[in-house]
Amino acid sequence: MRHILVVNGIKVRRPVFLMGAPHSGADLLGRALKRSPGFHVTMGRTCVAHVVYAFARRPSISRSSGAARVIRDALAEAWQVVPGACAQCPDACREAGGVTGTGPCVSAASLSRFCDASPDLLYSATALLNAFPDARFVQLIRDGRDVAADMLADPACLAWFKPVMLSDETEFPNPFLGLSKGEHRDNWKSMPVAGKAALRWRSAIRLSAGLRQDLPADQLLTVRYEDLVRAPAQSLATLSAFLETQISKVALYGRRLQPSAGRLRPADRELVEKVAKEELSRLGYLAP
Q1: Strands (E), 127-208
Q2: Do residues 88 and 183 both lie within one domain?
Q3: pLDDT digits over 78-134, tens only?
Q4: For residue 48, which phi and psi values (nearest 5 degrees)?
Q5: What is the DSSP secondary-structure string of 250-272?
Q6: What is the top-level taxon of the source organism (predicted)?
Q7: How many structural domains is the chain composed of?
Q8: What are phi and psi of 40, to 5 degrees?
Q9: CB-CB contact of 199 with 179 (8 Å)
Q10: Are residues 243 and 285 in the same domain?
Q11: Pairing mode, if any, of strands 220-224 and 136-141?
Q12: Which of 128, 2, 33, 134 is nearest to 75 (CA)?
């Protein structure tokens, strides 16, 4: 019998999960959904982040029989609408919801849908599908060079590239770090951070491709960040139809593309293109 989660007296049906490589636009789309009627969107709550990163660093845990219950319980806690709930949210989530006090940022009486746009949710996709068989997944794709440029300017992303993060207990293959074999450990530790960023993006793209093969079309939608910014009306119309709700355009107003040219050092750009050449070419970001 399928488990039905109830949060604040509301049955969680067709929850939405926004996924992609770091800085691919999941947070931007999360902002749009936060402003859409009936949606409660969480982004990086500690209870969810702990589970997500445990799954990311130890992929075997996410495939275990108890993984679905663990991620479901974490989301049930994150989605609770109670006084002071927003005080537990990271600054990015509070800012996206326009929260200036302790919250909550939404009214339980108006809720009908739940969504999570936590960073690196992609690595929990299997557990999320097992936990919520009727879930809707939206994955964001962005030029890997732009992703790498933003990752190099993000201390939170850079923290994962420290050699200590690749311990003797690390499992392989390890999509989170972008490594397929343990013998690549020493090369990874000495690799420039631009190369590590490229590996993470390349691995995320491969995971996304796998999801497109495994999930039916009515449960997975792939959106390009570039389309979301260049043609927001068209992109949001597609998203609105997929999610069966009207998505607010306010969060996308004034957004402009910032291509990687000039933001990546020439040597870093060359390394990113070398490491991720196949995926960049396949997605049309780099001439074959």
Answers
A1: 136-141
A2: no
A3: 999 887 777 777 777 777 766 666 667 777 778 889 999 999 999 999 999 999 999
A4: -80, -40
A5: GGGTT-----STTTS-HHHHHHH
A6: Bacteria
A7: 2
A8: -115, 115
A9: yes
A10: no
A11: parallel
A12: 128
φ, ψ at 6 (rounded to 5°)? -120, 125
The first and second tokens of residue 194, run together, are 């631009």
pLDDT, residue 36, reads: 87
Angle formed at CA 70 by CA 18 and CA 121, multiple of 5 degrees? 20
Same domain, 253 and 264: no
27 and 107 belong to one structural domain: yes
Verify that 66 and 126 share a domain, yes or no. yes
Residues 66, 79 share a domain: yes
* Residue 131 and residue 223 share a domain: yes
Residues 6 or more apart from 191 whose CB is under 8 A from it? Answer: 199
pLDDT band at 267 (very low <50, low <70, confident <90, very high): very high
Task: Return the closest-CA partner of residue 232 out of 210, 215, 255, 207.
Answer: 255
* Burial environment of residue 100 by CB neighbours within 10 A (0 to 12, 13 to 18, 19 or more): exposed
> pLDDT of 152-182, one tens digit each?
999 999 999 998 888 877 899 999 999 998 8
Q: What is the DSSP string of 53-71?
A: HHHHH-HHHHTSTTHHHHH
CB 198 within 8 A of CB 260: no
Structural domain span for residue 11: 1-142+216-257
Q: How many CA atoms lie within 13 A of 252 on its CB side?
A: 23
CATH code for position 18: 3.40.50
The pLDDT of residue 100? 63
